[in-house]
Amino acid sequence: MINLPLNYRTYVSPIAWLTPELLARQLDEFHFGYFFNIARTFEAIEQRDDVLKGVIAKRKKSPARLPWQIRIIESSTHPLTPSQEGEYDSGVSPQAPSTSGFRPACLPPRSGASDGVGSSRGSSVHGDVQALAQKSAVEKLLQTLDVRSATDKNLRGSLPLFIEQMMDCVGKKYSCHELRFQSAPDGTPGAVLQFVPLWFFENKEYALKFVDQDGAPHPIDPRDWIIAIGDGLMEASSIAYLYKHMPMRDWLTYCQRNATPGVKGITDALPGTPEWDAAKTAVETFGAEFSALLSRGADIQAIDLTSRGQLPYAALVQRMDQAMIALWRGADMTTMSTRSSVGASLQKDEKDLVAEYDTYFVADVINTQLIAPFIRHLYGPAEPVRVSFSLQLPAQLDREIAVFTLLKTLNMPIPQETLYERLGLPMPAETLSTPSAPAETEISKTEDQQPTSTELTKQIEASETLL
Questions:
Q1: Does the CA dihedral 458-460-464-466 come out positive or negative?
Q2: Which residues contact 153 (CB under 8 A, 6 or more apart)?
Q3: How many CB atoms lie within 10 A of CB 275?
Q4: Measured over all CA atoms, what is the biggest interatomic distance in the chain, rounded to whole angstroms?
Q5: C-alpha distances out from residue 138 to 112, 131, 143, 191, 411, Å
Q6: Which of 231, 227, 232, 235 lies closest to 207 in space, CA to CA?
Q7: φ and ψ at 196, to 5 degrees?
Q8: What is the pLDDT of residues 191-246, one digit of tens each?
Q9: What is the mean pLDDT of residues 178-195?
Q10: Cβ neighbours of residue 55 closer than 8 Å, sequence gap 6 or more
């Protein structure tokens, strides 16, 4: 794993002197593949802006908190009986009974293996056992995943931390994890993932390269890295941040100059006399930012710089805050401007679409860049991937319940294995040991008791509210 030297740190704030010209130059560098300056600017903005700090954390943590499951790809297997599942789902590597006549796909066939008619059943059983073995191995991999950070050795976690770090690409466009497969002391295969921030990379030649402390780029092996590519929302967010804090600084300056009134003292004493000095001390200790002591007859005409109408600063700051929230969460931009937080809900569906896409995005990265290499590492390069990782949104869970409720209302059979799998629940032990009843016996009503087509139509229409 990469160990970053201590002298790689920099103590110069990337946003202390941020100007529109400097930000424009850094964004141009970003498009040309030079990430060091702009990635550190993005990170500082994420950590220090009050609105971005909240919405980005919510966007990153939303998919990380969802329940996950490993499903067997239906096209890769034929279903086993519950007794077969219990027989083959106990180990990481597929171990077939001595009478089954099959071997793992990563091993060559035994001498004398038949390629005739009987090979079809052997291939089917082989696929079933391989799928169950892959499912068990991948579940153990994700449960024991060791996730770290190259810039913070104190940070350790598992799958939720990996997903949260992966979601960094939504803002910075790329997120990079170094991948190493290793075995636990008990022999269980696992993996170590180390997150490396974007400012340690460049993309000048249309491929990411790691940049060492001397500035020399080194190509990275895609087999040793998980590279997630997102939308890069920090490009627009950084512009909104800049044009939010520029009027905010002017607003603070206005408050400093005009919020506290000045103090003017008038005395008959002559300058230099004890009476004059006493009056001067009294005026200076009053606590005002501006104070003046005048002899009687003298006058100072103040220039009033206060605005007679509504100040524009608050509207500009609020507009940028709303833009950043809309970019990251897909929320209604009018919601923040209403006191009751009930604005136009036109973008409510867009918020749900953003959350749904994040789950598919995370699952795709894990399936293609973690699970698939793990299967090849464990069983050999010729072994096909027979399992799939997925996250389950709460909205999907509600829809699954509504579908099963409708099926029950229509007296249609519901396989228990499918019910537990779709709801993300483990199968009870007594259910696994009990053979499934035939589908015909699950409908207890007689033909006379079956609902008519009109009744079915009404029930389906009534269930649309649930769906």
A1: positive
A2: none
A3: 12
A4: 122
A5: 33, 10, 9, 11, 36
A6: 227
A7: -120, 120
A8: 999 999 999 999 999 999 999 888 899 999 999 999 999 999 999 999 999 999 99
A9: 92
A10: 324, 325, 328, 329
For residues 393 and 357, give the distance between their C-alpha atoms in angstroms, rounded to a whole number.
Answer: 10
In whole angstroms, give the CA distance from residue 124 to residue 189: 26
Cβ neighbours around 199 below 10 Å, total: 21
Query: pLDDT tens for residues 278-299?
Result: 887 877 776 556 666 666 645 5
Bridge partners (DSSP) listed for residue 218:
210
Residue environment code for 429-461, b if the CB has 16+ CB neighbours within 10 A, otherwise e:
eeebeeeeeeeeeeeeeeeeeeeeeeeeeeeee
